[in-house]
Amino acid sequence: MSTRPTLGKRPSSHDRDVSPPPTKRRPQVQSGTTSKAVASFFTPLSQKEKGPETMAWRVVNDSLLIGRFTSRGGTGAVGVAAGGAKRRKIAAFDFDSTLVTSASGKVFSRDATDWKWWHPSVPTVLRGLHEKGYLVTILSNQGGITLANTKSSKPAKNDQKRLLDFKLKVVAVLSQLDLPSISIYAATSRDQYRKPRTGMWHEMLEDHDLEAPDAVDLENSFFVGDAGGRQAVGGRVKDHSCVDRDFAANLGIAFHTPEEYFLQEEARPFVRGFEPAAFLENAGDADSARKGSPITKTNPLDIILLCGSPGAGKSSFYWRHLQSLGYERVNQDTLKTREKCLKIARVFLQEGKSVVVDNTNADAETRAHWIALAKSFNVPIRCVLFTANPELCQHNDTVRALNAGPDTNPESRTLLPRLAFTGFASRFQEPKVEEGFQDVVKVGFEFEGSDELKKVWGKYWV
Q1: Which InterPro entries does the annotation name (predicted)?
Q2: Looking at residue 2, what is its pLDDT?
Q3: Which residues contact 285 (CB under 8 A, 6 or more apart)?
């Protein structure tokens, strides 16, 4: 029995195909999927190699799904750019709402057959790019797909069906493009592969032996996607995000929406939620920067309570500015419960050591426990309020979680769910001196780190 071909140079997870569950009869809709494409998907690879095309799948880190389609006579090799140029031009495309859309008119395709070309010109345009020497590839976020690790968990039937539907749809689409070879990269998790992060791009470069610094002609490469941050103008629907535009910016290549690229429409206004590079340039803004520490040790023994959203810079502020003043730290992320934090803080105070409470402390009820502790020891309690906005906090959290290292993530924290930020915002009550604090000091966020880390932080991450 022949083995399934794999893609790339590294070992990867085995393809996890499943049989489709019984489906209910639905009204027929016009689709781009042919019976030939469906039959080809279920044909054993040893038999398909004798036919017109093959499709090979692999999974990286239980997260990134990669499929390579090769037509008869195609090798999947990169080839040489037109004119013998050494640097390769890349034409990268999003998948849904860029190359294809649902035939039913629904936002999401209901099954593998519910698709049609976004515009009839799509196949011709992509073939033309290939003939001009471009490496044509597809890079897509697919959060609705689950790639469960079969060693530890069994995927649910709905997850199996969504994965199978996606694979069938991809086979049908790629077989009709009539290209010698084309690959699709689908990011299924909130990790380094998901746009606007560039993990998919780098995986693609490695698969095609384009890792050298000068291997890609970035100036003449581009990415086309529908998530461009466009606003609702002239009756048009607002884009769901700006991740495709941000993805291209992170790579340093041109960006186009499908309307701009396939239909030559004028560009529409767009808005980004958070501009890290602009934030760095605006470091002198009084509300977004701090110069040194606004805190000095004014009491022989006291408590400093930090208040702010996850990702606001509380822990970094402690390590950089308060530890050197002799403060011990209690943190609920590491101790897990408030009771344990209070217990450890009592021990420190009994030993004559001042304490920093490094938690979010969003509301007056939570802060009251610490004010009561300070009163029981007859020591002052001060409050430091971190004012970073939610977009900045989510950016900080993502940079921290996806860049392991002593400078970026010394406590190996994982990526927080969006609920962590919205939950804080819903509970937040601004601290007041009247609660029992000696003073309340507001602190904005200022990036601190090496030039190399600053370059990383300045990319789009959310």
Answers
A1: HAD-like_sf (IPR036412), HAD-SF_hydro_IIIA (IPR006549), HAD_sf (IPR023214), P-loop_NTPase (IPR027417), PNK3P (IPR013954), Polynucleotide_phosphatase (IPR006551)
A2: 38
A3: 444
Tokens of 12: 């990867």
Same domain, 252 and 313: no
Are the CB atoms for 293 and 448 separated by under 8 Å?
no
pTM of the model: 0.83
Asked if residue 28 is part of any domain, the answer here is: no
Residue of higher predicted confidence among 105 and 188: 188
User: Residue 287 CB: number of other CB atoms within 10 A?
Assistant: 11
Distance CA 344, CA 86 (A): 63
Average confidence score pLDDT of the chain? 86
What span, in angstroms and rounded, lies between the C-alpha atoms of 421 and 426?
9
Domain end among 231, 262, 293: 262
Q: What angle do CA 219, 183, 66 make, to 5 degrees?
A: 115
The answer to whether 383 and 437 have CB atoms below 8 angstroms apart is: yes
Q: Residue 60 belongs to what H/E stretch?
A: strand 53-60
CA–CA distances in Å: residue 158 to residues 24, 164, 242, 297, 402 = 14, 10, 29, 58, 29
404: tokens are 């392991």
Structure tokens, 383? 């409050």
Residue 235 shares a structural domain with residue 329: no
Query: Where does the pLDDT of residue 108 fall: very low under 50, low under 70, confident under 90, or very high at 90 and above?
Result: confident
Total domains in the fold of the chain:
2
| pLDDT tens column, 50-81 | 456 799 999 999 999 999 999 876 555 544 44
DSSP 92-136: EE-SBTTTEE-SSS-SS-SSTT--EESSTTHHHHHHHHHHTT-EE
Question: How many of the other CB atoms lie within 10 Å of CB of 76?
Answer: 19
Q: DSSP state, 214?
A: T
CA distance 67 to 48: 16
Question: Interior CA angle at 44 toward 42 and 45, to 5°?
Answer: 115
φ/ψ region of 104 (left if φ > 0, alpha if ψ in -120 to 50, else beta) reads: alpha
Cα–Cα distance measured from residue 55 to residue 66, given in angstroms and rounded to the nearest whole number: 10
